[in-house]
Prior knowledge:
The chain is α+β, with helices and mostly antiparallel strands. 38% of the residues lie in helices and 18% in strands.
Amino acid sequence: MRKLRAGFTIIEVVLVLAVAGLIFLVVFSALPAMQVSSRDTQRRESISTLISKIKDFQTNNRGALPNGTDVTVVGDNIEKSVTSVVSASDSSWVGFYRDYLGKAYRDPLGYMYNLKVVKCEARNADQECPNTDAVNAKNQFFSDRNYTIVVVTGATCYGDTAVGTASPRKVAALYKLEGAGTYCQGT
């Protein structure tokens, strides 16, 4: 007498493959969003590093900020700069970037950050900084790929907005995140 072996039916096999396919689809569709979230977390950490380095600079310079406003520091230029262009005792934002942030200060995609330094022009404390660069940092599209952090002097953060403060030595740093929104952190 011959024994019949039990096996899977075609319907059971198709059902298992469909469930496995659905699981793979869910995992692989969520992967890009997880990667964006991870990069945005790294960008927030970069802003925290910037704020920490600004505080270090202030500690080493009797509370003063680097010299200048309405300047743009292009990270790639820092990488290419030579000592004859920027002196060792440079207390400008260019010198700050070179000495405190350095060549390793990069976006998670590998591009060096740029700093756009502006002064908050708010008439009163706790008013939104009306100067265009500070306000429009929220409206920069990540697709521009300019990797610019807007540093607003004389400001602090209120949510994702730079607002004026009574202290000219306060700084707010704003950056447009890849996922959505703007991140703001102050000293």
